[in-house]
Write a structure and sequence with these properties.
There is one protein chain. With 340 residues, the protein is an alpha+beta fold. The chain has a domain at 48-278. Helix content is 20%, strand content 21%. The protein has helices at 2-15, 46-58, 63-73, 122-138, 319-325, 328-333, and strands at residues 96-98, 164-168, 172-177, 182-187, 206-212, 215-221, 226-227, 235-236, 241-250, 253-261, 270-278, 301-303, 309-311. The strands form three sheets. A nine-stranded mixed beta sheet has the order 1-11-10-9-6-5-4-3-2. It is globular.
Length: 340
C-alpha cells in the first residue's frame, strides 16, 4: 500500500509538470523575471516618475500601439504555470479595497478637484463645465446613472470603493468588484480580441493580456460609454480603450498603471496609478456576497427636474407601527403558519 501511494504521488507531480522531484524533495519554483519595462515604485519622486509614465502614453497614437510596444519589450511575455502560482508574487488572494478613500479617477487629486491631470478635448471640457454648473446650481446635487443598478463599467470600475477580489490562473485572471457582482476577465492564453465584426460594446469590454515576469499587462476595448465618476469627472465614450500593468507590490497591496485612450473626451491618454489595499480578515468572516440593489425598494432613486436626484419614497414602518408589530398583541394577531 505504501509503495503504491508513493508511485501515485510521483505520477501526479509528473503530470503537473514538476521537474526534478524525487521521492522526498521537490525543486523550488523559480520566480520569473520581467524582460520588459521595469515596475516604477511609488516613492518620494513619484511626481517626476508619474510624468514619465504619462509621457510614455503620449508617444503612441492609440492604446494598441502602446500595448504592442510593451509586449515587444517583454519578448512576447512568458506563460504563467500552475507551479508559479505558489509564489508570493502571484498570490493575489484576499479581499481588497481602494487604497485612497476618495473616488477621484486619479487618486493623486484632491477630493473636490476637477480632472486636473487629464488633458481634455473641447468636447470633454464642455462636459466637465456642464457638470460644474449643475453642481453649483443644485448645491452639489446630481443624478448618477448607476442609481438604476447598472454596472459602473470600465474605466469607472477602478474607482468604486467596494471590496475587490482577484483570482489568478495561467490562462485567465478574474478581477472582481463586489458592486453588482462585477467581473473583468483577462484572457492570458494567447487569444486575440473578439473581432470588430463580431464584437459589441459591453460594460467591461474585452480584455486580453500577457505576463511579463510578475507584471500582468492588459489591453481592453469594446467598451460602453460612461463617466469616470460622479462630481467633476469627465465622461468617456464607446471609443475608449485601456492599457494596464498590474502587479502585487507587497504582501498587502495590488497596484495598476492605467492609460486611458479616448479620442472623444481626451486630447492625450490619461495615465493614473490605481491601488488597492488588503482588508484585514483574520477570522475570514468577510466575503464578497451576491449584490442586487433592487431587492430593497427603499434604494429606488429618481432624477429630479433640476438634474439632481432623490429617493423615490420610503416604505419604512413608522416608529409606533414598528413598536406595535413587535408587541405581544401584534404577534398574537399575526397569521400563524398552517399546520402540516
Amino acid at each position: 500500500m505504501k509503495a503504491a501511494f508513493t508511485m501515485s504521488l510521483a505520477t501526479a507531480l509528473a503530470l503537473l509538470g514538476v521537474a526534478g522531484c524525487s521521492k522526498n524533495t521537490v525543486e523550488p519554483v523559480a520566480s520569473p523575471v520581467p524582460k520588459g519595462m521595469p515596475w516604477v515604485a511609488q516613492g518620494n519622486n513619484w511626481a517626476a516618475e508619474k510624468a514619465k509614465l504619462q509621457a510614455l502614453g503620449e508617444q503612441f497614437e492609440n492604446s494598441w500601439a502602446l500595448y504592442e510596444k510593451l509586449r515587444a519589450d517583454a519578448q512576447g511575455g512568458q506563460p504563467l504555470t500552475w507551479q508559479q502560482l505558489s509564489l508570493p508574487a502571484f498570490d493575489w488572494s484576499g479581499l481588497y479595497t481602494r487604497s485612497s478613500r476618495g473616488i477621484q479617477f486619479d487618486p493623486d487629486l484632491g477630493k473636490n478637484a476637477g480632472p486636473d491631470s487629464a488633458q481634455l478635448t473641447a468636447e470633454g471640457a464642455a462636459v466637465v463645465q456642464k457638470k460644474r454648473e449643475q453642481l453649483a446650481r443644485t448645491g452639489g446635487g446630481e443624478y448618477d446613472p448607476i442609481s438604476d443598478c447598472r454596472p459602473p463599467g470600465t474605466p469607472r470600475w477602478h474607482t468604486e470603493p467596494f471590496m475587490r477580489e482577484a483570482i489568478v490562473t495561467p490562462q485567465q485572471t478574474w478581477l472582481i468588484n463586489e458592486q453588482v457582482n462585477d467581473v473583468r476577465r483577462v484572457y492570458t492564453d494567447g487569444r486575440a480580441h473578439t473581432s470588430d465584426e463580431d464584437a459589441y460594446p459591453s460594460w467591461n469590454g474585452d480584455t486580453i493580456g500577457f505576463w511579463d515576469g510578475d507584471i500582468l499587462v492588459t489591453h481592453t476595448k469594446h467598451l460602453m460609454s460612461g463617466q469616470f465618476q460622479r462630481g467633476l469627472q469627465p465622461d468617456y465614450s464607446d471609443q475608449t480603450t485601456l492599457v494596464e500593468r498590474w502587479r502585487k507590490v507587497d504582501a498587502k497591496t495590488l497596484q495598476a498603471d492605467v492609460w486611458v485612450f479616448d479620442p472623444v473626451n481626451l486630447a492625450k491618454p490619461w495615465y493614473t496609478r490605481q491601488s488597492w489595499t488588503m482588508v484585514p480578515n483574520k477570522d475570514r468572516t468577510l466575503r464578497i456576497r451576491y449584490w442586487d440593489c433592487r431587492e430593497n425598494s427603499n434604494n429606488s432613486i429618481v432624477k429630479q427636474e433640476d438634474g439632481s436626484s432623490d429617493f423615490k419614497g420610503f416604505d419604512f414602518l413608522q416608529k409606533s407601527d414598528a413598536a406595535a408589530s413587535g408587541s405581544a398583541a401584534a404577534k398574537k394577531k399575526a397569521p400563524q403558519p398552517a399546520k402540516r
